[in-house]
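Feature request, filed as a ticket because there's no other form

It would be nice if the structure record came with a short human-readable summary line next to the tokens. Right now we just get the raw output. Example of a typical job, pasted below so the devs can see what we mean:
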Amino acid sequence: MRERVRQFLALERSRNTFDPVRNSWTSFNAEFSRRCGEEGLIGLVFPREYGGQGMSNLERYVVMEELIAGGAPVGAHWIADRQSGMQILRHGTEHARQLIIPRIVTGQCYFAIGMSEPDSGSDLAAVRTRAVRVDGGWRITGTKVWTSNAHRAHYLIALVRTAPKTEARHEGMTQFIVDMSQPGVTTRPIYNLYGGHDFNEVVFDDHFVSDEMVLGQPGDGWSLVTGELAYERSAPDRFMSVYAVLLETMRKLGPQPDAHAASEMGRFVAHLAALRFMSNSIAGKLQRGEQPIVEAALVKDIGTTFEREIPEVARRLVPSAPTMGKGNGFDDMLGGAILRAPAATIRGGTREILRGMIARGLGLR
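Raw output as currently delivered:
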């Protein structure tokens, strides 16, 4: 499987369809995602009756890892393949599966994540977006924020409160599949400090969602969203976003680095090996139908701390003047990594939230 992906990426590079130095799993390229679909690199674990290949989570893990390591611009289909498709397969109606899953497999259906809300940080239980029951479905009103690629997504899975909030704050929530092309959904851009448009605010104004687009049963939202986060937090994208920076730093240091540089690079390689082993183990748990929520939180916490540290160490080890968008090779790569690094330990849950989850899971609090 590794060789198959590497041959595909080598062919695409020879056609100049992407620049591996400038991409990561967040890079959006619709045409490249379509090519991945044609090559059969999306929906590997999806059942064959929906266009998938019925493969194992281990094979899927290998494909994800190779695409990231090769600098492939897979951001268009990544969320749909990594978690949204699995959520629909496990908890969606047959109508939703038939409508959406085959399109994900072709690399032409994109998803956004509708969890975070204004003023709530990483506290998902603080959801205020509400849905009320109407004939044939639900009407949703509220706001989601930090929704990556919502301006390009066809669908969004939203966590919404469907019952009044009580002291049991994890109850009364439901997940809905939102069609972004329908009335009552407005997407507003949130520009990064360097001018990039990745994030968005999504506003629901009496938006109608039919019963066929509900995930699970009304009120199941909390258990469903925590299971979904096991997919989001444990994949190799949580510790390989700046893998290209690590490789280029090693190349810049050459075959005979000084003792300090060798120590730093050796430490990173050891951490990467451990993270790969941990993430691989979670892939096995998912294959067995388990929900490794605490294990996924641990990988995400350690992995994104690892990602955040790489550009800081690289800047000290390799003489450079980090830039953005000037075509200066390593300087550009390092500049982009430095600016994006703070987001690593926030997206998908802050370190503080994750460490609280880990402590509870270990019985320490």
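Something like this underneath would help us a lot:
The chain is about 45% helix and 15% strand.
The domain at 235-361 is CATH 1.20.140.10 (Butyryl-CoA Dehydrogenase, subunit A; domain 3).
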